């Protein structure tokens, strides 16, 4: 939110995308160079130490979240992983086909940037998970990860076939007991169908 940027005296909200891109480049420099230096519009440093270096080499994986056009470009050009949310009202990726289209866009941009699109890890968030009942979106389409166990298992297989390697399962429950019950139903009714 713009108010949050002003409160912490961050760079201008309208430039947040450019700032994020530059911060990602600066992080990589700090984490991978024994004598880091960086000169950008928002970040400048030299003659500093950043130790200890991360265990992951050359640096920890940088996951880019978001499904907007700028977020997809950032993931394609700079991300080690892409984590879109299906609940964005402007660009909902709440069905398999919508996700597939956005993924093709991201992979096309990565390829044009000289990157191997298959090297970008993928995570899908099952925000609309609803076992036993279809959860239609505003267009009346069944949202991914809703419906009968067979439908949810088929969704998991379809996303896996696209190259998704991580599924964040968000199980519903108003109480800890309801959440545990939802988790148990996912384990016993859906996972055996996934293989």
Topology, please?
Elements: H1 2-7, H2 16-32, E1 38-39, E2 44-45, E3 63-65, H3 69-78, E4 81-83, H4 96-112, E5 121-125, E6 130-131, E7 146-147, H5 149-162, E8 166-168, H6 176-194
Parallel strand pairs: 3-4, 4-5, 5-8, 6-7
Antiparallel strand pairs: 1-2
Helix pairs in contact: 2-3, 3-4, 5-6
Report on the architecture of this protein.
This protein has 195 residues and is α/β, with parallel strands linked by helices. It has two domains: 1-60, no CATH class; 61-195, TIM Barrel (Alpha-Beta Barrel). 43% of the residues lie in helices and 11% in strands. It has a four-stranded parallel sheet, covered by helices on one side. Helix 3 (69-78) crosses helix 4 and helix 5 crosses helix 6.
The helix content, as a percent range, equals 40-55%
How many helices? The count is 6
* Domain module tally: 2
What is the CATH topology assignment of the largest domain?
TIM Barrel
Number of strands: 8
Largest sheet: 4 strands, parallel
What's the N-to-C terminus distance? 42 Å
Strand order of the largest sheet: 3-4-5-8
Overall mean pLDDT: 93
The CATH superfamily name of the largest domain is Luciferase-like domain
- Rg calculated over all Cα atoms: 20 Å
- Tell me the fraction of residues in β-strands, as a range: 5-15%
Keywords:
2 domains; elongated; single chain; alpha/beta; 43% helix; two-stranded antiparallel ribbon; TIM Barrel; 195 residues; 6 helices
Write a short abstract of this structure.
By secondary structure, this protein is an alpha/beta fold. Helices cover 43% and strands 11% of the residues. It has helices spanning 2-7, 16-32, 69-78, 96-112, 149-162, 176-194; strands spanning 38-39, 44-45, 63-65, 81-83, 121-125, 130-131, 146-147, 166-168.
């Amino acid at each position: 939110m713009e108010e949050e940027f002003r409160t912490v005296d961050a760079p201008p909200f309208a430039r947040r995308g450019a700032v994020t891109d530059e911060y990602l480049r600066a992080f990589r420099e700090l984490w991978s160079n024994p004598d880091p230096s960086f000169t950008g519009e928002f970040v400048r440093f030299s003659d500093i130490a950043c130790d200890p270096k991360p265990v992951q080499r050359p640096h920890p994986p940088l996951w880019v979240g978001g499904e907007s056009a700028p977020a997809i470009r950032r993931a394609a050009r700079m991300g080690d992983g892409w984590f879109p949310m299906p609940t964005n009202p402007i660009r909902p990726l709440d069905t398999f086909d919508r996700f597939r289209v956005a993924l093709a866009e991201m992979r096309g941009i990565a390829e044009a940037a000289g990157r191997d699109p298959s090297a970008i890890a993928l995570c899908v968030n099952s925000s609309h998970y609803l076992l036993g009942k279809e959860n239609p979106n505003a267009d009346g389409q069944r949202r991914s990860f809703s419906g009968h166990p067979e439908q949810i298992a088929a969704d998991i297989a379809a996303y896996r076939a696209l190259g998704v390697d991580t599924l964040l399962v968000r199980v519903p429950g108003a109480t800890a007991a309801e959440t545990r019950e939802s988790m148990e139903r996912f384990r016993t009714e859906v996972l055996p169908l996934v293989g």
